[in-house]
Description:
By secondary structure, the protein is of the alpha/beta class. The protein has helices at about 15-25, 45, 70-75, 80-90, 95-100, 105-120, 135-175, 180-200, 215-230, 255-270, 290-300; strands spanning about 1-10, 30-35, 55-60, 60-65, 125-130, 205-215, 235-245, 280, 315-320, 325-330, 340-345, 345-350, 355-360, 370-375, 380-384.
Amino acid sequence: MRIIIYTGKGGVGKTSMAAATACRIAKSGKRVLVMSTDPAHSLGDSFDQKIGKEPTKIADRLDALEIDTVYESEKSWGNLKGYFKELLTSRGGNGIEVEELLVFPGLEELFSMFKILEIYESGEYDTLIVDCAPTGETLQLLKYPERLSDLINKVLPVKKKGLSTIGPMVEKIAKIPMPEENVFDDIEYLMDKMQRLQELLLNKDVVSLRVVTTPEKIVISEAKRNFTCLYLYHYNVDAVIVNHIYPEKAMEGYFSKWIRLQDDGLREIRESFSEVPKFYVELQKKELCTLSVLTEMGDMIYGDTDPDEVLFRKEIYTVDRDASNLRIYLPYADKQELELEQQGREIMVGIRNESRRFPLPEDFAEMEIAGAKFADGYLNIRFA
């Protein structure tokens, strides 16, 4: 099964591009599900029909789904929600504010990701197309499983071990309920799901990300930052789709000054994403909605290319053991904004407000960073 995730700045046309891709792949005879994780769903508007929280039939071999985060949360919480509710109401109070407190930041995004895992493991489809929220939300969505999994892996064994020994004492003195064993079982179950989810997302034979942009300077800048952060988290971006290109004829007269600006934007895209396949989409005379229009658009975007294939792959993290050197690919990163720190058997790499931990290879575990150099899009780290 293939999973293709569309991301980009709000308003660039991610939903239309995702829907058109789904139509094109379904037309080739494969079973396709296109799914929206954006809380402000517009997938139903694209197909001009109501789409629910479970797969809705759009055409032969094509279904669509709009994630209901409340519904997915209820399915995933298990005994955890009951325990946290008991904890919050132990000192009195059981109003609606308790239910609101139970919505922890990031959990809704995590449950959306679990839906991707559930669909993949069901094997019901050949291809899953994911229409993501705008860039910032997408990055939160993609990095959440790794960060929460890392936290639980470190905390859970300590908490579970202490439950049987000091748990009764804490419960008696602090007058707060201690979790039952089934709560830990649910945490371990969630941890296992996160591990499987993380392995799936980093499987470059299965998962590709495609960045949608427009030929405007501010949008291109965000696309480049998005590209860098995705590579920081080891995801494979296999294509860039350039949407909303004005035909030259449409730029005559009043809009003539925009021709140079658009040409500059297209030149920057060609230079910035030189290795990555690019698909150019002109602004259409009609709105991109309904199945027939989207199917036509899918053919127009990809031509002879099969959009279900992995269109490009770049090695992101390489180890040169002979030279005791690590290379991390960080395209478009600013050298002045890079941060590097070694913490035990991990290194932390930061770019602006994003950071990522990389476990050191066993050969380097007892070494320390001896130097680092950023050149040609690669951060080269030398150990000694």
